[in-house]
Amino acid sequence: MIDASHIKVHPHAAGAKGGNQEMIRSKGGLIQRYIWPWMCMVCRVRIIITDGTTADWTQAWQLISGIAAEYLLADKYDSDASVAQAQSQGMTVVIPPRKNRKVHKGYDKDLYKLRHLVENAFLHLKRWRGIASRYAKNARSFLAAVQIRCIALWANIS
């Protein structure tokens, strides 16, 4: 299962040496001081931090590369490249087609209902204040905090 989520960046996280890593400024009113990175995740396996302007489906191939799985469950990540890569790795793709697809491919709707588990993982990750509002100035520090939280969830010590 793969998914992505926006994380608000705390204003004090801006201004790291070497520039704002994996952060962009959003437009509009008071929100300008907040910065939004994407956090894409294969549940408990791989996490990628990107800036807020990176489309989440463009990172799907990186998440599934080298992963052995029977199914790929995702929310409208049905880019031809991601689907082809998943199928070449022997995965059955369970992705609802985007509305602009000329040919709508079928998918297992009952199996797709299990995708809520990855949404729950983001819910548990964001219970840590340092992740819900990114305080880390560096992308590596933020990624480390997310990985530590994932270990704590996996070990059930949270």
Automatic annotation (TrEMBL):
GO biological process: DNA transposition
Domain Transposase IS4-like: 2-153
Top-level taxonomic group: Bacteria
GO molecular function, one term: DNA binding
Matching InterPro entries: Transposase_11
Name of the protein this chain belongs to: Transposase for insertion sequence element
